[in-house]
Specification:
Blueprint: H1 2-56, E1 59-69, E2 73-84, H2 87-107, E3 115-129, E4 132-148, H3 154-165, E5 169-177, H4 182-207, E6 211-222, E7 229-230, E8 251-263
Antiparallel strand pairs: 1-8, 2-4, 2-5, 3-4, 5-7, 6-8
InterPro entries: 26kDa_periplasmic_antigen, SIMPL/DUF541
Organism: marine sediment metagenome
Protein name: DUF541 domain-containing protein
Length: 264
């Protein structure tokens, strides 16, 4: 009996030694396999750092070009709004007034492609008396955005719209834009590059280095439009002037460049 127990103890000890040896072998293999991955990660980080540093080498400057021009298109925000005891009645008034408004725009040479619905809403209106909510009717509104390409006719378009829409008409805003800014951008871009080149040459002279060729160039373009004018009352008053006067002013196209040059 004792001999049997002794044999079992010896076998168990031998099995433990075998298992420990296997675990050490797996751990060593895992460590050896993971080494290249760590090396690869370090190499990738170093490469990214070198790329970033190479972009910053040399002489970097910014340049700006500005070109102003008169706008050639007006954008109107207008429409009609009506209130009635029922949605159907209010909607009927709006549809009739909007039809007259669209006819007026067409008569003034505004094409269908330049008229786009910007808002359509139907909602109840309430009055509050002695803490109670009382329904007073339903409001239906239909607003459109209109591009007037003949900017000299913008005032006439507004006046005729007021006449067509009557008391239901609302003129919410007017703004101005330039339909095609391609030529203006090119002119401003040339000014921006010349501005950057001049700055780079001045810095190189002051620093006592030789300016090389540009190796990195970025550009940004903006056209800072003036904010649209909003009529506070929502409806233009016609008694003050026979023709609504419109002053479009000027708009400015701005091009900015960032350039990096080599230096010796």
């Amino acid at each position: 009996m004792k001999k049997g127990i002794g044999v079992l103890l010896i076998a168990g000890a031998l099995l433990s030694v075998v298992l420990l040896a296997a675990c050490d072998s797996d751990s060593s293999a895992s460590s050896e396999g993971s080494a290249p991955a760590a090396s690869s990660g370090t190499y990738g980080s170093a490469a990214a750092t070198l790329a970033s540093n190479s972009e910053q080498q040399g002489l970097s400057v910014s340049g700006e070009g500005r070109v102003s021009a008169a706008p050639d298109m007006a954008v109107l925000g207008l429409g009609v709004s009506a209130k009635a005891s029922t949605v159907k009645a209010a909607s009927s008034q709006v549809q009739e007034a909007m039809s007259d408004l669209l006819d007026s725009l067409e008569d003034n040479g505004v094409e269908e492609k330049d008229i786009q619905t910007s808002q359509f809403s139907i909602y109840p209106e309430y009055d509050y008396r002695n803490g109670e909510q009382i329904l007073t009717g339903y409001r239906v509104s239909h607003m459109v955005q209109v591009k007037v390409r003949d900017i000299d006719k913008a005032g006439e378009v507004i006046d005729d719209a007021v006449e067509a829409g009557g008391d239901l008409l609302q003129v919410q805003s007017i703004s101005f834009t330039i339909d095609d800014t391609t030529a203006l951008r090119s002119e401003a871009r040339a000014e921006a590059v010349a501005d950057a080149q001049t700055k780079a040459e001045e810095l190189a002279t002051l620093a006592g280095v030789t300016l090389g060729k540009p190796t990195y160039i970025t550009e940004s373009i903006s056209t800072p439009y003036p904010p649209p004018y909003y009529d506070r009352g929502g409806v233009f008053a016609m008694e003050e002037a026979a023709v609504t006067e419109i002053s479009p002013g000027e708009l400015e196209v701005v091009v900015s460049v960032h350039m990096t040059y080599t230096i010796d």
